[in-house]
Design brief:
Order of helices and strands: HEEEHHHHEEHHHHEHEEHHEEHHHHHE
Largest sheet: 6 strands, mixed
Helix content: 40-55%
Strand order of the largest sheet: 1-2-6-3-5-4
Number of helices: 17
Distance between the termini: 25 Å
Strand content: 15-25%
Number of strands: 11
């Protein structure tokens, strides 16, 4: 699991977030939705008090449900590899480079058929492939597009992967926006994916390692039982099959298409002037129109319990409850705050009875579900004395009894903290751009919901939701225990 922030930092954020939410109604930059002639969706968040600097974030979905069968992780791979440049930025001879890439693909495909995964290739086989790789390297510069961004000048593009979304973000002086706009259009329309084969294997290895970890196994089981057919529930083979570069570019065209992405511009700029610029640059796309993916929806409601054996002795519990369809995002944030991340949260107190246990809550889970789940996880790693069945029984009983333990002040503060955290997380324009890209794409939140604008949930509403959710038995229980 991701490392936790220090307790002191968490408490400071909670205090500041709550203060922000109650001191005055949350205010933020007005966000305007704008669509260019090619169908690109923009969210413009001008900040009159900001210096003439624009933070530009492009969000694209990489969830496994967008991947072709047998190629889980392909969307994430092509987005990672896309920073290797375009035919216009990085290619010394585009026609010659295209031919060498095709020749390398044919050689790799034949070698995979004859000798299996590259890890199994003998030295003499690798020696035959290396000249083809050298030929590709001689005709392309994978750093040229990023250098062009920096030379505008702009900041080095960063990539953020969160909630099934990949965000490409950079910052630039407002006067240099035209140059950045043309480079981002070039990235979308003319990607080369020079380093795709290496990135593909690295990405699949990352996904396989994450999916086979104790937490990964429990989450995949929850997805497999609560969201039938979810691609994210499947095993990822670390020995990925061969995918041709042409197929990878087709996948990039699908995930980077204007209908599947969102651009966010935040900072000091004149929105009318920027809209005029964007209209001129983003006039058309050559990418084929993709089918829009359906939202991930839960299976028919019924209780499910799974037991997973753990050869390493890890012990864990995952409990999942369906989120009511009428619950707003900030209300779910408030319910989650009751469980973890505040000074009065219940999960950390309950976990002390089990020794060294990592415990937490995720909501909504998965991020792209409509509606999703509230997922409570507890994990005791390595061999130890924790009785997994006793931990399961205790957590189920504690969660069932939670509504009766709630105090009004806890429900009230959890609502204030949920709003305050959103305000705090988007108070900086660069953070705002990334948060808007992730929140609007991954969770379908409105810009106002991402920024924590609007009414704070009342204590009565938070209590009502807690009773509706936790007053029933968890719909899914996954137990990870030592193999018998």
């Amino acid at each position: 699991m991701e490392p936790r922030e220090s307790t002191v930092r968490i408490h400071l954020q909670i205090a500041l977030g709550a203060a922000l939410s109650v001191a005055a109604p949350a205010q933020g930059p007005a966000v305007e939705a704008f669509t260019t002639p090619d169908g690109s969706r923009f969210l413009l968040a001008p900040d009159p008090s900001a210096p003439p600097l624009v933070h530009w974030a492009v969000g694209a979905a990489h969830a496994s449900d967008l991947d072709p069968p047998g190629a889980l992780g392909l969307s994430r791979s092509v987005l990672r590899a896309s920073l290797g440049g375009t035919w216009q930025h990085g290619s010394l001879d585009a026609a010659a480079e295209a031919k060498t890439l095709e020749a390398l693909d044919q050689l790799l495909a034949q070698t995979w058929r004859d000798h299996g995964h590259p890890d199994e290739w003998p030295a003499e086989v690798r020696a035959r492939v290396e000249p083809a790789r050298d030929a590709v390297r001689a005709l392309g510069d994978p750093t040229a597009w990023r250098r062009a961004i920096v030379s505008i000048p702009a900041t080095e593009p960063i990539v953020v992967e969160e909630g099934g979304i990949t965000v490409l973000a950079t910052s630039v002086a407002t006067r240099s926006l035209p140059r950045l706009a043309t480079l981002l259009l070039d990235w979308r329309e003319n990607v080369t994916l020079r380093s795709f084969h290496d990135v593909w294997q690295e990405t699949v290895a990352d996904l396989a390692a994450s999916g086979s970890s104790p937490v990964g196994r429990m989450r995949r089981e929850v997805l497999g039982t609560a969201f039938l057919g979810s691609a994210a529930a499947r095993d990822v083979d670390p020995r990925a099959s061969f995918v041709p570069s042409a197929e990878a570019r087709q996948q990039f065209a699908r995930v980077a298409h204007p209908l599947r992405t969102v651009h966010v511009l935040a900072g000091g700029f004149d929105p009318e002037a920027v809209k005029g610029l964007l209209t001129k640059v983003f006039r058309f796309t050559m990418l084929p129109t993709p089918a829009l993916p359906a939202a991930v929806r839960p299976a028919e409601a019924r209780q499910r319990r799974s037991v997973l054996p753990s050869a390493d002795g890890d012990r864990g519990i995952a409990l999942a409850w369906a989120i009511p369809a009428d619950a707003t995002p900030v209300e779910i944030d408030a319910v989650a705050a009751l469980l973890d991340g505040t000074t009065f949260s219940f999960l950390p107190r309950w976990a002390t009875a089990f020794g060294e246990v990592t415990i937490g809550v995720h909501a909504p889970f998965p991020r792209n579900a409509r509606p999703g789940l509230i997922l409570v996880e507890a994990l005791a790693e390595g061999s130890g004395s924790t009785d997994v069945r006793a931990m399961e029984q205790s957590l189920v009983e504690h969660m069932a009894g939670l509504p009766g333990q709630l105090k009004d002040y806890q429900c009230k503060q959890s609502g204030e903290i949920a709003v305050g955290r959103r305000v705090l997380a988007t108070s900086d324009d660069s953070d705002l751009a990334i948060s808007l890209a992730i929140g609007t794409l991954a969770e379908g939140r409105s810009p106002a919901q991402v920024m924590g604008l609007g009414d704070t949930p009342s204590s009565a509403r938070v209590r009502q939701l807690a009773e509706r959710i936790f007053g029933t038995h968890p719909g899914t229980i996954v137990v990870l225990g030592p193999a018998q």
